[in-house]
Amino acid sequence: MHVNIPFDNSFARLPATLFTRLDPTPVAAPRLLAWNTALAEELGIAGPPDAAVFAGNTVPDGAAPLAQAYAGHQFGGFSPSLGDGRALLLGEVVDRHGHRRDIQLKGSGPTPYSRAGDGRAWLGPVLREYTVSEAMHALGVPTTRALAAVATGEVIRRETDLPGAVLTRVAASHLRVGHFEYFAARGDKESLQALYDHAVARHDPEAANPLDFLNGVIARQSRLVAQWMGLGFIHGVMNTDNTSISGETIDYGPCAFMDAYHPDTVFSSIDRHGRYAWSNQPRILPWNMAKLASALLLLMPDPEAAIPAFTEAVHAMPDRIEAERLRVFAAKIGITTPRPEDGALIDDLLTLMQAGASDFTNTFRALPGNDAKDQIADREAFLDWTARWHDRLAEEPDPHSLMMRTNPAVIPRNHRVEQMIAAAVEGDMTPFETLAAALATPYDAPADDTLAAPPAQHEVVTATFCGT
């Protein structure tokens, strides 16, 4: 029995300027490493997982493989032609809930957008994205999902020879801010309009005009970044080509979760000036949305007259993001409906955490049991803070339950991810499977409590890499 995927490919019906049609490049010896059975059922995929399909050796019936064209601002500089350089959109399905989802192969070979790259991925980034994206889903954060990981039986040449792999990624769509920049930069209003119409139908069917659409993207992205902040998550490369229209987390390259809390934490090896540090993410998002606004202005009947309204939408973002951040962090300390003055309570706790390099995840997780004092260096100051906090919680109906379902017990800690990758390279998938099982229920204490522990000094990860 062959795998049956119920494709219905709307993007492939758009003008040819938006993509390049091509098949994936076959690999030497495809072997299934991981399969997301629950997600497959949700997508209506029937039949056993077929490594040949999810490595790109066999194009399934109904697929319409293509590489999407887009541009992007990368670390502030505009790259007019990027696109899917190592990925192919196999097609789309309408899932069991009536939602349209993309199915994409990542690491499937070169495309016209590869910019001299080999279009491949090695095992490490594939397992990192599989693990972290599924963890984010379990944590309740909008994200792309991982359907399959397949070993290719080929050697990938990077700094050294590494085992190749292909990830099958599922998304509400792979549309990015950079898609709109691509056509705006070329003055191709016809293609820009076709892209906009597709995006509206898919993500904002109630949007009456480009300003409504912009506000929809702003709202989704503002909620998303606030959720990242609440988990100590650092995307690492918040370029406009990595900023999704759907409001999903996308492109897990040098991403990481903080261990010791510091607002200026950076992990990405290519972020040398801290542009995408944890604390800068709420500041970068309005910058990215300004680029989307500039592109969408071209679709307005009178772009010049529309500038003030578009500018106002972007300028209102810092307050919107701060309101989302307050809501997220208030829940982390047991407050259901935050008041403006609760911001000081939250910030004072973060200041104490920073001063003592407290573990971000474990400090918040310890609050319901009053064990957070063990995470804070300045005990006296923490006791003062605790007294204020308890006074505030006296007004809350069930703060303990709120905190337990808001603060995870286990996250994909960087050292565990690196250990999992190292084992997989040697052929041992057990650490991957163990970590994935714990991350599937992140608000429950893991059976192996070492998975919740911060790294020992010799295990600390100081830099993460794109893996391309």
Poorly predicted segments: none
The residue-averaged pLDDT reads 96
Taking the sheet with the most strands, its summary is: 6 strands, antiparallel
In which range does the helix fraction lie? Answer: 25-40%
Based on CA inertia axes, which overall geometry fits?
globular
Radius of gyration: 22 Å
Structural commentary:
Helix content is 39%, strand content 13%. It is an alpha+beta fold and 468 residues long. Helix 3 crosses helix 14, helix 4 (177-186) packs parallel to helix 7 (281-297) and helix 6 runs antiparallel to helix 7.
Entry keywords:
two-stranded antiparallel ribbon; globular; alpha+beta; 13% strand; 15 helices; 468 residues; 12 strands
Write the layout of secondary structure elements.
Elements lengths: L18 E3 L9 E5 L1 H6 L8 H5 L10 E3 L3 E3 L2 E3 L7 E8 L5 E7 L14 E2 H16 L6 E13 L3 E11 L5 H10 L2 H15 L6 H22 L1 E2 L21 E2 L23 H17 L5 H13 L1 H16 L9 H14 L4 H7 L12 H15 L5 H6 L9 H12 L4 H10 L29
Antiparallel strand pairs: 1-3, 2-9, 4-5, 6-7, 7-10, 8-10, 9-10, 11-12
Helix pairs in contact: 3-14, 3-15, 4-5, 4-7, 6-7, 6-8, 6-9, 7-8, 7-9, 10-12, 14-15
